[in-house]
Known about the structure:
The complex is a heterodimer of chains A (256) and B (312). With 256 residues, chain A is an alpha/beta fold. Chain A has helices at residues 28-33, 77-83, 117-126, 172-179, 192-205, and strands at 5-16, 20-26, 39-42, 54-62, 67-73, 90-97, 108-113, 131-137, 155-161, 168-169, 185-189, 208-212, 228-231, 234-237, 244-246. Chain A has 2 domains: 5-97, Elongation Factor Tu (Ef-tu), domain 3 (Beta Barrel), CATH 2.40.30; 108-249, Nucleotide-binding domain of ferredoxin-NADP reductase (FNR) module (Rossmann fold, 3-Layer(aba) Sandwich), CATH 3.40.50. In chain A, helix 4 (172-179) runs parallel beside helix 5. Chain A starts with a strand and ends in a 10-residue tail after the last strand. Chain B has one domain (8-305): Aldolase class I (TIM Barrel, Alpha-Beta Barrel).
Amino acid sequence: MVNSYSTAIVETKEITSDRYCKLTLKAPAASVKGLPGQFVMLYLPSEYGPMLPRPFSIYATDREKGLISLLFEIRGRGTELVAGFDEGSGIKLLGPLGSCFPEPPPGALLLAGGLGVAPLAFLARRAKTPVTVLYAVQKADNLAFQPEELTRPGLILHLASEDGSIGYEGTALDLLAMHLEQASALYSCGPRKMLSKAASMAAKAGIECFLSLEERMACGIGACLGCVTETVQGYKRVCSDGPVFAAGEVVFNGKA
Amino acid sequence: MEKPDLKVNLGGIALESPILAASGPFGYGHQYRELNDFSQLGAIIVKGVSSEPWAGNPAPRLAETASGLLNSIGLQNPGLKSFLSDDLPPLRDCGTKIIVNIVGRTIEEYAAVASGLDGIDGINGLEVNISCPNLKAGGMAFGTDPEATHKVVSAVRQQTSIPLLVKLSPNVTDITVIALAAEDAGADALSLINTLSGMTIDIESGRPFLGNTFGGLSGPAILPVALKMVWQAAGAVKIPLLGMGGITSASDVVQFLLAGASAVAVGTGIFYNPEIVSGLKEGLVEYMVRKNIYRVEDLTALAHRGGINDEQ
Lengths: 256, 312
C-alpha cells in the first residue's frame, strides 16, 4: 500500500463537553480509501514538543465530499494542539494506515468503551448488515456524540453509564453480558482491561471476536517497531499488523 | 557559483550526499521509500541485525519527553538469515548506499554477523553498534569500556574488509578514550552519538513507564550533547566522523559539519516529518551557496579552525 502524506484542510471543528473534539478534514485520498478500524497520523505544528505525530481512528467519512472525521478526547498537549487548529487551516496527515475490521456478520455486537466508540461508529455506519452497538461511558456528560448521530436502518444502539445518568446503569461488560447470548460475533475497542474480559466472554460464548488496540506510536507505518503488542506469534506492530487483531492472537497480561 | 559539491568519503565509502538515514527509525527502509527519494540520501543505515532473531523488549517501548523521545525497542530484528533473504534484496535498487548496523551480546556474535555479511553484494559498510542502551548484555557494555571496544572492533575487523563505522555511546565519562580505542582497533569511521540512557515514571501507576524500565533518549533534546561529543572526537581521532543526535533542520546539519563531522545522519527527525530528507539537503545547498562554500568537505571541522570567513 502506498502511504499518502498530504495537507488536509480543517473543514469543521466541534468541541463538546469541554473534552471531546470532532475534527472534520478535507482529505480526499484518505476519505476514499479509509476503512473502519484504520487510522491516520496527524502531525503537530510544534517546534519543541510534543513533536511526534498522533494516531487517530477514523470516525466517519464522506467520500463524495472528500471528508474524514476524527473524534477524540482532549487529554494531553498533543491532542490540545490538534484541537487548536482553526477551520480552514492546513494540517499534515498520513494515511489511512493499519488494518481494518472484517465485514461484520448479521447480528454482530460492537462493544465500545469510552472513546473506543470512534472506529466502531464508523464500522456500524458502513456495515451492510444489522448490527448492535453497545456504547458505555462513565456518565452522560462523557458521551462523545449525540445518539441521533449514529443511525441507519438495521442499526441498534444501546447506551450504558456507570452512574446511570444515561441508558443502562452499569459497565460496558455488564451491557455485553446482557446481549452476548444473541450475538453472532463481537467487535470491540476501548480500555485494555475491558478488551481482555470481553475477549474471554466471547471465547466462552464461542463467537468470533475482533479487537482494535491502542499503543503509543512514532512512525505509524511499521518501520520503528515502537508500538508492539504481545501476541501468540510474538510481538506484533499495532500500527501495521493491527490495530485490528483477532482476539485469539492477543496476549493479555502474559496469558493468551 | 557552480552547483555545490556534496560528495564525501566516509572511511572508504564514497557518498553522493553527506546526509544519511540513521539506524533504527527507518527500519529496513521499505516503509519510508514510499515517502522519500532515497537517492537524495548519502546512505541508509539499516536497523540493527544480529546473528539470530531477537524478540526485543516488552511494551510499552516509546515515551515522548520534552523535545525528545525515549525508546526501548531492544533491537528487535529478524536475524541475519532473514535479513539477507527478505530485507536486503528489495533495498539493493533503492538508489543509495547501504550500511548495515550490526549488534551482538558477545564478541562472537558480533563476529558472526560481520562474517555473514562479508562479501555480500550491495552492502557498502557496516556500523558496529557498541552503544545500544536497551540490552541487558552486550551493546552498550562494549561501548563504555575502551578495552572491550578494542576487542569487539578488532574481532569484527578480522572478519571483513567492508568499511567499518563504529557507533559510540554518549553514556561515558570521556568519549575520546572510546573513540581512540575504536580507531586503533581498525575502525574506518565513527558514528556518534547513540541515545542517552534515561527513564520516565507513570505517576498514576507509580511504576516506570517503559516495559524495559530504561530507554534511550533521542530527538532535539540531545543535540547539544551530541554536538559537543563530535567536537571532542574530532579533536582526538584522524578517521572521519558521522554526526547524529536530534537533527531536524539544515542548520542542525551544518552545525554537526562545522563541529567536525564529515557527514550526518537523521533518525528521530523522520518521525516528525516523514519527508524530511529532501528538505535537509536543499537547506544545506542553500547555506553553502549563501556562504560561498563550494565543497561540503570544506565545512568539516571549520569551527575548530576559526569559523567562516565571509570576506573570502
